[in-house]
Amino acid sequence: MTIMKKLLTTAIASAMMVGSAQADISDDTVKIGYLADMSGTYRDLAGPNGLKALEMAIADFGGKVNGAKIEVVSADDRNSPDAASSTVRRWLENENVDLVAGMVASSVTIAVTKLLEENDSLGIVSGSAASSITNEHCTPNHIHYVYDTYPLANGTAKAVVQEGGKEWFILTADYAFGHALEGDVTRVVEENGGKVIKTARHPFPTSDFSSYILQAQSSGADVVALANAGSDTTNAINTAGEFGLTQSGQTLAALLLFLTDVHALGVNAAQGIQLTTGWYWDMNEEARKWADRFMEETGVRPTMVHAGIYSSTMQYLNAVKATGSDDTQTVRKQMMDTPINDMFATNGRIREDGRMVHDMYLAQVKTPEESENEWDLYKIVRTIPGDEAYRPLSESKCSLVSKN
Amino acid sequence: MSMILGVPVAVLFGQLLLGIINGAFYALLSLGLAVIFGLLKIINFAHGAMYMLGAMVTVIMFDAMGINYWVALFLAPLVVGCFGVLLEYFLLRRIAGQDHIYSLLLTFGVALMIQGILTNIFGVSGMRYSMPDIFQGGFKLDFMFLPYYRAWVIFMALLVCFGTWFMIEKTKLGSYLRAGTEDAQLMQGFGINVPLLISLTYGFGVMIAAFAGVLAAPIYSVTPVMGSNILIVVFAVVVIGGMGSIAGAIITGLLMGVIEGFTKVFYPEFASAVIFLVMVVVLLIRPSGLFGKEA
C-alpha cells in the first residue's frame, strides 16, 4: 500500500512537473537577441553572417522547441558599450528576450553581462576574447563559448618563446580586450623564461601603424607581438612587411587572427604566421560539412565565431527542450551538465565560471604553394587539450568558483 | 646615443619623418575640405567617403579590369570627381544658400549611404592590394628604414598641395573661382558660367580626397569604413588651420601629423586625442584658427 501510494504520488508529482515545465517557457516564445558589430571593424568575424549561423541553428532545430516558437531579434552594437546596454536593457525589460547571443568587443560584453546579471537573464558570448569575462567579470548569467585570451597566449606565445624568442615588444589595443591579452601573454612569456621589454598601447581603431612598428624595430626585441584584432592587426602586419620588420631578424606574432583577417591579408603576406584558433572549417569531416552549408548561405567560409554561434545556439535549444523551461538558471545548469560533442567541439564542457572548455589548435598559415584555394589557409600544427589551454579553476578570481 | 626624455634621438628623427608622411595625408584631405568650404561654403561630411571611394575604386578597377596603380592614380580620382560633380548637380545645388548645417547633414547622409552599401557588398576585412614592384624595398637611412613608397607619398602629396594652392591663389582660373563665389551675379554678368564653375570646384575638391585614397590603397587596409575613421581628425585639422584657408590646411595637416607622431612615442594612449586637445586650445586663443582671417 505504501509502495503504491509512493508510486502514485511520484507519478502525479512528475506529471505536474512536466505540466508546469511546459508552462515554464515564458509567453510561449523563446526569444533570442543577437547582438554584434554589424557594420564596423569586427563585422566580418561575426556580424550579419553570425546571424545567419544563428538562424541556421534554429532552422535545423525545427523552428520550435516543445511547441513554443523561436524568435530572433538583432541589433548593431557599434562596438559601443553604451549603445549595446540601451539595446539590451530594452530587450530584457520590454521585449522578453530570453537569450542574448553573439557579443564581440569585450568592452561591450562586460557591460552587457552586468545587465544580464541584474535581470537574471542568460547570455552566450561567442565573439569576445578577454579572459576576464569568466574571471573577475564572471556572472552566473553568461557562458563564454568559443575562445579567450588565455589560450591565445598559451598557444601562440608559448610556441614562440620555446622557439627562442626571449625578448618581447607587445603592441596592444588600448581597451579591455587588449589589456587582457597583454596580461595573459606577459604571464606566459615570463613563465617560459622570456621577458617583455616594452609595451605600446594604441588607440582603437588605428589605421597607421608605422610609428609603432618603428618603435618596435628600435626596441631591439626578438619578438613583436600584436595584442589587437581585426583591421588593426591586418594593418599592423602590412606595415611590418613594408618596413621590413621580419627581414631584420625580428619575429612577428599575431595573437588573435580570424580566418577573415588571414583571407584579407592573403597567403603571400600572411604565410608562416602562427596563430591559435578554437576551430577551423577544414579541420575534420563534420566541420567541413557544416562549413559547406554555411558557404552556400553566405558565400564565405565561417570563422570560429560563426561556428561557435551555431553550436552554442543548438546547445541552448537542446537544454530548453530537455528541461522544458527557458528559466535562466535551469537552462544554464542543464547546459553545464551536458558535454558538447558536435561540429564545433569534442568533449567540450561548461565550467561553473561560465567558461566552455574545449580543445584549441595551434595553426600556421599555409604558403602560396600549399594553399589550394582562397580559403585554404591553415594547417593545424598542434592540438592543445582544453584543460591545458584554458585558465585552471585553481587560478580563478571568479566568485562563482568554490574554493576547496 | 643621445637621448631626449629617455627616447633615442634617432628614434625621434624617424618619428618626425613618419609624422610628416601621415601629415601629408591630413594635408591632402583637409586641403580638399578647405577648397570646398572656402569657395562654396559647403561643409563636406562626405569627404571621408570620397577618400575611401578613391581607394576602393583603385582596388576594384585592378581586380575587375587589371588596371594598374599608375593608371589608377589618374583614373580613380577622375571617376570619383565625376561622381562628386553629379552629387553637386543633383543634390547640393538644391540647398545652396541655406544654412551650413543643411550641407553638413546632406553630405553626412550621403556618406553613410555610400559606406553602408559598400560594407554590405565588400565587408570590412579589407581588400588586398599590393604596391607596384618598383616600390619594393626602401632607403636605409641612419636612423630608420624608409620604404620607397612612403617617400613617394610625401613627394606626391606636397606636389598636389602646392599645385592646388598655386592654382587657386595665383592663376587667372583661381581668381575667377574666388570672384564667382564672392559675387556670383556679377561674374555671370561677365559671361562666366558660375554654376558650372561651382560643380567643377566641388568635383576638384573631391578629386583631391580620392587621390589621397589611391595613395593610401597600397599601405592601409582598404575598407568601406576607412574614411569615417580619418574624417573627424581631418575636420579638426581644418578648424585648427582656419576654415577655408588653403595654405592653413596644408601647413596644419603636416604639423598635426608630426604632433601626433611624437605623441605615439611619449604617450601612445593619447595619440587619438592630441589633435583635439590642440583644437580646443586654438579655438580658445584664436577662434578663427591659426591661419584664418579674423571675422
Q: Can you tell me about this structure?
A:
The complex is a heterodimer of chains A (404) and B (295). Chain A is of the alpha/beta class. Chain A folds into 2 domains: 27-147 and 283-358, Rossmann fold; 150-277 and 360-389, 3-Layer(aba) Sandwich (Rossmann fold), CATH 3.40.50. Helices cover 44% and strands 19% of the residues of chain A. Chain A contains 13 helices and 15 strands. In chain A, the strands form 4 sheets. In chain A, strands 2-3-1-4-5-6 form a 6-stranded mixed sheet, sandwiched between helices. A 4-stranded parallel sheet of chain A has the order 8-7-9-10, with helices on both faces. In chain A, a hairpin with a 2-residue loop joins strand 2 and strand 3 (68-76). In chain A, helix 8 (230-242) runs parallel beside helix 9 (259-270). Chain A is globular. Mean pLDDT of chain A is 92; it is low at 16-23. With 295 residues, chain B is mainly alpha-helical. Chain B has one domain (3-127, 155-285). Chain B contains 11 helices and 4 strands, in the order ββααααββααααααα. In chain B, the strands form 2 sheets. In chain B, strands 1-2 form a two-stranded antiparallel ribbon. In chain B, helix 2 packs across helix 9 (226-241). The longest helix of chain B has 32 residues, at 9-40. Chain B starts with a strand and ends in a 10-residue tail after the last helix. The model of chain B has no long low-confidence stretch (mean pLDDT 90). The chains are: A alpha/beta (404), B mainly alpha (295).
Give a summary of the structure in a few sentences.
Chain A has 13 helices and 15 strands. With 404 residues, chain A is α/β, with parallel strands linked by helices.
> What is the count of β-strands of chain B?
4
- Oligomerization state: heterodimer
Give the rounded overall mean pLDDT of chain A.
92
Low-confidence stretches of chain A: 16-23
Largest sheet of chain B: 2 strands, antiparallel
Q: How many discrete domains of chain A?
A: 2
Q: Shape of chain B, please?
A: globular
Reading side by side through the largest sheet of chain A, how are the strands ordered? 2-3-1-4-5-6
The number of distinct helices of chain B, counting runs of at least 4 residues, comes to 11
What portion of the residues of chain A fall into strands of 2 or more residues?
A: 15-25%
Helix percent of chain B reads over 70%
Alpha plus pi helix count of chain A: 13
Structural class call of chain B reads mainly alpha
